[in-house]
Amino acid sequence: MVQQSEMFAALADPTRLRVVELLGEGPQRAGELASRAGVSAPVMSRHLRQLLQAGLVSDTRDPDDARARIFTLRPELITSLQAWIDQVQAHWDEQLGSFKTHVEEKRRTR
């Protein structure tokens, strides 16, 4: 199981974040991603390797060209990140609500 910290570390880089956004549009080849992200092929290769290791993307071989790999976003991991963020948000909403209630009670008792 990939750790959330690995996923967040992978997404911390602006280029990798851009790659995830681009893959949100649909599967793409590394060359397409490099061109659209404005980086060289070797740089894109390093970014894709980190995204693969973090489990955020997967790759398959193009049936018409065995040398070409097609990269795809793994939505189930993006969904798990969203679920974690939602939990954190709910916790903070609860904490802030409690703090607000506390402050309002203090104001009334003055």
TrEMBL record:
GO terms for molecular function: DNA-binding transcription factor activity. SMART domains: HTH_ARSR. Residues 1-96 form the HTH arsR-type domain. Gene3D superfamilies: Winged helix-like DNA-binding domain superfamily/Winged helix DNA-binding domain. SUPFAM superfamilies: Winged helix' DNA-binding domain (SSF46785). It comes from the Bacteria. Pfam families: HTH_20 (PF12840). NCBIfam families: HTH_metalloreg. This is Transcriptional regulator. It comes from Microlunatus endophyticus.
